[in-house]
User: Which sequence fits this backbone?
């Protein structure tokens, strides 16, 4: 076992480079730190490149199953614990991190994969973004579109907040609003385009949702862009009973997503 | 106008002391920074003690209405901008902060005020806690119980995340689980005690909710305490359609709270 101990090693230098988002984008990869995230990525069929791990992690019997599966998919690079800690962005990377290829769908393949899509318009907060992806997966959505101006989905904080959900949903990001609207007009014309709007006449629980839909959720402070709002084929409102002007974006997305799932299940149960 | 410029001034020294949570608890107060929060607190009927403001904030015509209302309720203390910034915890307190009395209900008065209660069991994240309070208010809940071991509700981050909601709901915190269960057995026996439980047989959208209820939400990592779970009079589950083991605590609370509100509104509309 060849164990890297120098930060001047080429593989460590490459890894260090990947901690700048510009370099990750250029390479089309993202980084996962810690056992739990890597297990979730493996379960979700992620496309691994390299795994950096400490000798202690490799030798621990409780990691045998994970490592046997990973070994089939990625190059193993052994690295001293101190050097791994120095490189990683989390305080304690728990002895392992992985470089994974971005699985981002380009163009119309995406729409063939996804019936229920959550569209995120300039969402800024990584925790919010991650929670929305986690919730969308839980509610049976199968696609995420993050429009240009949203936080990078492959940001560590976003990935952690998805609790592994990011690996079981089709992702499309950095799409401009213009291109999205053009696509929707042509190939994807069979989607219901849903907007939550305080001015809507129909409550979210009154609406009959179509099977193929795109739920649009807007920026935390400013809501949905006016043009997206005008493009919506359906507008719904969530009732506000108390002295509150609006809901958190992730909360609004959750309430509507689970209303959609509940309707589907009710129809099945009846 | 007497403008304080020295950090050795007694009033500034007192304010500085209040930035330690131990001292806030002893005094029974909390601090609000910035115009928007103070407006929300005023609208919610908060009990103000002192207002620290800069001469510039006082002189700005757009603050006239707020200041006229505040003047009736609190002592005004003028302070130089640099000194205010040095003292405040937010980077930019926007020229004003206020010391406000905690409006915490003690004992059974609380139950007389609150029909729909959200109970928070050892919630750790201030953002989660604040979002849950904001959402509870929006969904028409009128009481919050935060059991011992939860983050302090009067923490600045919690207050900010409530978006003013904290001032329009009855609050009870630092209650031990034992005391809560004892109270519920006696005076508050008419409440439905609801727990979200993955093992439940009934989906959240199938359940018929009572008018008086306590929705119990558990710690982000470990869920609801076993004894609380066993005390529940109703257990419901939120369906999980995708490859996700659980929902974020604030999301689970939102989905159930708005199902309860939707049922009420449906009954009214029919």
Assistant:
């Amino acid at each position: 076992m060849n164990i890297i101990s120098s930060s001047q090693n080429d593989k460590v230098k490459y890894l260090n480079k990947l901690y700048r988002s510009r370099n990750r984008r250029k390479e089309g990869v993202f980084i996962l730190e810690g056992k739990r995230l890597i297990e979730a990525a493996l379960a979700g069929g992620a496309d691994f490149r390299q795994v950096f791990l400490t000798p202690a992690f490799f030798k621990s019997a409780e990691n045998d199953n994970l490592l046997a599966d990973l070994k089939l998919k990625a190059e193993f690079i052994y690295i001293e614990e101190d050097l791994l800690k120095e490189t990683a962005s989390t305080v304690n990377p728990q002895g392992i991190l992985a470089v994974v290829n971005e699985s981002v769908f380009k163009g119309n393949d995406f729409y063939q994969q996804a019936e229920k899509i959550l569209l995120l318009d300039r969402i800024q907060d990584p925790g919010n973004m991650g929670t929305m992806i986690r919730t969308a997966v839980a509610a049976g959505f199968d696609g995420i579109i993050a429009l240009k101006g949203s936080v990078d989905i492959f940001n560590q904080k976003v990935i952690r907040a998805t609790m592994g959900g990011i690996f079981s949903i089709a992702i499309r990001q950095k799409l401009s609003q213009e291109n999205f609207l053009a696509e929707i007009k042509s190939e994807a014309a069979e989607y219901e385009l849903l907007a939550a709007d305080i001015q809507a006449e129909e409550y979210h629980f009154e609406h009959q949702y179509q099977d193929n839909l795109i739920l649009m959720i807007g920026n935390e402070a400013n809501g949905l862009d006016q043009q997206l709002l005008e493009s919506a084929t359906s507008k719904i409102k969530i009732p506000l009973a108390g002295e509150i002007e609006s809901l958190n974006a992730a909360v609004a997305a959750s309430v509507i997503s689970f209303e959609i799932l509940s309707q589907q299940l009710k129809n099945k149960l009846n």
